[in-house]
Design goal:
disordered N terminus, 233 residues, mainly alpha, 2 domains, Four Helix Bundle (Hemerythrin (Met), subunit A), two-stranded antiparallel sheet
Length: 233
């Protein structure tokens, strides 16, 4: 009887939390929040003063790189240097006071290149702050975001290089600086492609989360709920 009462109290707590989320006007729009906390279980519990608290417990799978923490830190440094070098090259090519950089096609491609670099930067930042053992949310916002971001940015940079090269061929005025801009775009694309390949080839080890703590806390919550129910009766 007591176990049934505990399960009922737990279901009521979960229903109240779900109702509170549905009533919140911003919850349905918090896509990134729910994506990051994927496979987390939320539940309410009472402390010694009888106040309710919300706790999250991860019950999904963990992802761990197949190398040491020292290698992991070194890889973070390499990724950061590759990105910084690519950003410097793109910045150098895009800020030269040249006729090609004033062409409307170059301006549009430059916007896509900058947006792509911002996308890669966000993914790289998530990768740099991600722990050695990641949740599914950490994995998706770092590696899962970095790989497509890099390939799309590489495509934009390659198009910018081709556009600059075509403009250089069909214009009478040819300078070494214009040719250098083409080389910079190609080099930046190559660096980001290398970054993408280095991360794509990592085979992360994954294992289920240890639910022992979750079971202990859930049993504790059930016991507390039963005691509260007995006191009320």
């Amino acid at each position: 009887m007591s176990s049934e009462r505990g399960r009922k109290l737990e279901m009521d707590a979960g229903k109240k939390a779900s109702d509170a989320k549905k009533e919140s006007p911003g919850y349905r729009f918090s896509f990134l929040f729910r994506r990051y906390f994927e496979d987390f279980k939320s539940y309410e519990y009472l402390d010694e003063q009888g106040q309710k608290h919300l706790r999250k417990v991860y019950t999904g799978r963990y992802y761990t790189p197949p190398f040491s923490k020292k290698h992991y830190a070194l890889r973070k440094l390499v990724y950061a240097l590759l990105f910084l070098a690519a950003a410097v090259l793109v910045g150098f090519a895009g800020t030269r006071f040249l006729e090609v950089n004033l062409f409307w096609g170059t301006v549009i491609l430059s916007i896509f290149c900058v947006l792509g670099l911002c996308w890669v930067m966000i993914a790289l930042f998530n990768y740099l702050i991600a722990p050695y053992t990641r949740t599914i949310g950490d994995q998706k916002t770092s590696t899962g975001m970095m790989i497509p971001a890099c390939i799309w940015t590489v495509a934009a940079l390659a198009l910018a290089a081709v556009e600059n090269a075509v403009y250089l061929v069909f214009r009478q005025q040819k300078t070494a600086e214009q040719l250098l801009c083409v080389v910079c775009y190609l080099a930046a694309a190559g660096l980001l492609f290398l970054l993408r390949e280095l991360e794509r080839r990592v085979k992360y080890l994954n294992h289920k989360a240890d639910t022992k703590d979750w079971n202990i806390i859930r049993n504790f919550e059930t016991a507390e709920s039963e005691e509260s129910g007995n006191e009320t009766i």
